[in-house]
Predict the structure of GP-PDE domain-containing protein.
Amino acid sequence: MIAEHHPDLLAQFVPQAYQPEEIDQYRNFGYEDVIWTLYRYGDDATSVVREARNRTPSAITMPVSMADAGLLVAVREATAVPVYIHTVNDPGTVACLLAAGAAGIYSDDVGNTDAAALRDAPQNCPRKDGS
């Protein structure tokens, strides 16, 4: 409806695609930037990387659990697509994810800490054994 009735506003919106084919659909509507969110798609690294390479979303966003399971690193190593993680409210976890290559974080509240301080916070990374 926005593309049809208000094409002059398209640049002000960044739609979020839940499935890879939606990235193409949004672009066909005229949206230049499209974020692909993975929480409804799944965490199969081979499939995510393949679709990211084929459809080149402007960014990918995933939950912390997928990032912790290795998907953040897999996507960052295989593509140039920026990866954002949601929802992270612990400054140490933010520091860990940024150090692992996240382009940014979605958060409800990480206190009054500025972005530079978050990058330098003591890291609170999950251990490989899941604890």
Summary: The chain has seven helices and five strands.
